[in-house]
Here is the input.
Amino acid sequence: MKKLIALCAVLMLTACGQQADTQSSAPSETETAPNASASEPQTVVVYSSRQPHLIEPLFERFTEETGIRVEFSNDNEAALIERLAAEDDNTPADVLITVDAGNLWQAGERGLLQPIDSAALNGSVPASLRGTDNEWFGLSLRARSMVYHPDRVDPAELSTYEDLADPRWEGRLCLRTSRKVYNQSLVAMLIEHHGTERTEEIVSGWVSNLATTPFSSDTLLIEAVEAGQCDVGIVNTYYLGRKMADDENYPVILFWANQDSTGVHVNVSGAGVTTHAPNPELGQTLIEWLASDTAQGEFAERNLEFPVNPTVEAQGLVRKWGAFEQDQTPLSIAGQRQAEAVRLMDRVGYR
Ligand code: FE
Here is the structure.
């Protein structure tokens, strides 16, 4: 292992630094290179849409622990998926890391990811948080639930996503735009639970209850609840977590939705090995490591999310929110029903 790390340090100065937008996890310490010719350096290439500060420290730890270098390119998920498709069997990428099952599903549908048969991954990642053919695996769990302002809402009034369609919320609800995949996945799951007709009533009710035009981000939505523009909204919990990390008395409060029915809508950030990976076994090794007990706590905590690995406990401030019932519906459904969800939201005028 030490030989590989040392060799990488040398290579990074030359071949490894060629692409401007490609970054490497640096070996942590300088060591004298012993017989470097004894083995080839191993490098796994990753396309990642996860913010670099959330993932890079983990790549560095992976390199320290395994001797395998990580070279990664960061871009948004649409660009990375197009790039993989265009590169086809010439892609340098072994692994795609992105957020939302809707995006992972799309990459799988386009034939860009390959099924992985891994006892380690099957043990670390619950089946509902993987692709149907094990072509992608959730690595952190994100919950999309409700937030409210305690001055204007009694939590006893809150119950379900469906209930936010009730006329008593008229002029009190804030939503993020329907163009965000997070809401497409949420509505896809509502269709799965209730069918199209009932879901159309629910989403149409939301639109009637809107206090203002949908927001471009969950953070703006939370700030609107704080400012009194609306009383309640639907967001991914880590956005509230960021506010709470800055101000422990932040006045907007989390409510776990649907605890007596379908459970909170959850999603993942996740990864898959690319179909034309030059080094699929290294790609698999990296994903197995990210899903392992060793890495899961940090992977989730850096973004105030939850581990997917059920043997690892949530860490940091998200523990304050306590345990919650989650929707156990396979996340691949969010992808399968995505187009339907987009059409439905369009029909009822949810922009
Ligand atoms: Fe996000």
